[in-house]
Amino acid sequence: MKRKLSPISQQKNLTAIAKMLFLAVMTVVAVVLLQWQPEPVVAQDDNGVQIATGSSWQGASFPVEDFRGYSSPFGYRISPTGQATREFHSGLDIAAPMGSFIRNWWSGKVVEVVNDDRCGVGLVVESGYWDHIYCHMLGDVNSASGQDYLIDREGGVLIRNGQYLPAGARIGRVGMSGRATGPHLHWGMRYNGEWYDPALVLRAMYGEQSQVSQN
Asked: What is the distance in angstroms between the CA of the first residue and the CA of the last residue of the chain?
């Protein structure tokens, strides 16, 4: 004759089973999260060559040689022109001596050669879903056969719209073109059309590069 469990014993058994099931489910969830990796953001040229992968920052480059400091952060600020108004600053201003070389942050395609009153002479490079913007550069913007290009003869730089650039390539020099109160690079970052703080991108980039170098 089977012995019947008391209601208290039955409740204890049910509680123990529930705990075991909960632990089993959490173990499966933890394994899945550990194995999950973000899908890479890939830009390709016309020949199918990979340009940039968003799940790794190892090949990225700091954008300025002879770095001297950050002169203005990303976000809202008082207008640098002396007006007592707040404005949104869509990038990170990186101070460097006039004529310091600017390097391409990540491999990608030039999608715009800029020449306006605000940015001055600059470039927009597309790497997958990322756009990186470079402003206040030295040089001139000209056009030939319907194609814009940036030329800095003294710096030996010629960059055409539509050109593919490797990470770390010299793409221009620090200047004061456009709206600038001193020599610096205005470096902007957009991901899928939304502005991001370049300082956070640099922090993530150097964090990963540091981990790789220690392995």
From this structure: 64
* Residue 111 CA, distance from chain mean position: 16
CA 75 to CA 179: how far, in whole Å? Answer: 17
Query: Which residue, among 210, 128, 108, has the nearest Cα to 169 in the 3D structure?
Result: 108
What integer pLDDT is reported at residue 79 of this predicted model?
Answer: 64
Q: Report residues of the chain scoring pLDDT below 50.
A: 5, 22, 25-55
Q: What pLDDT was estimated at residue 46?
A: 37
**DSSP designation for 174:** B
- Single-letter amino acid code for the residue at 171: I
DSSP assignment, residue 145? Answer: T
Residue 130: per-residue pLDDT: 94
Token pair in block for residue 142: 């000209």
- Of 110, 153, 117, 154, give the one whose Cα is nearest residue 133: 110
CA distances from 127 to 45, 69, 160 (A): 10, 26, 16
b/e per residue 108-125 (b: at least 16 CB within 10 A): bbbebbbbeeebbbbbbb
Contact 84/108 with Cβ under 8 angstroms?
Answer: no
pTM greater than the 0.85 cutoff: no
Residue written as token pair 């770390």 = 168
Residue 143 confidence (pLDDT): 96
**Block residue for tokens 């001596």:** 97
Q: Are 185 and 135 in contact (CB under 8 A)?
A: yes
